[in-house]
Design a protein that fits this description.
Layout: E1 7-9, E2 24-29, H1 31-40, E3 50-53, H2 58-69, E4 78-83, H3 84-87, E5 91-93, H4 95-101, E6 105-108
Antiparallel strand pairs: 1-4, 2-4, 3-6, 5-6
């Protein structure tokens, strides 16, 4: 896996098509974490892996985030993306979130 994994912000995730795969994997994070990740990179730890999803998993993830943050004065979550090819060897299947979101999800542990 490369030392640096380039992240980018998805400015309008609701405009992405929800069908099929693309060359990216996605994560939904609070704004403060997105800022940290953009500056310092992704923290890879086998004991606390990061969840990633296919493009079709963005909407259910955002919906779950909205359900769990209702009533909090928290800023809108940010969708980040990274190239699938850069992390392919460090991915593990995430069957729990795959079932919950009805789309393939992964854990990025930094093998």
């Amino acid at each position: 896996m490369p030392d640096e994994i380039r992240l980018s912000i998805v400015p309008s995730p609701e405009k992405l098509p929800t069908d099929g795969q693309d060359a990216f994997l996605y994560m939904v994070v609070p704004q403060h974490l997105a800022q940290d990740f953009m500056v310092t990179g992704l923290p890879l730890d086998r004991r606390a892996p990061l969840m990633l999803t296919e493009r079709s998993g963005i909407s259910p993830w955002l919906a779950k985030t909205a359900d769990t943050t209702t009533g909090y004065d928290e800023a809108r979550p940010v969708v980040l993306r990274l190239k699938r090819a850069l992390v392919a060897q460090a991915l593990e299947p995430d069957p729990d979130h795959t079932a919950e979101f009805a789309t393939v999800c992964y854990l990025l542990s930094g093998n």
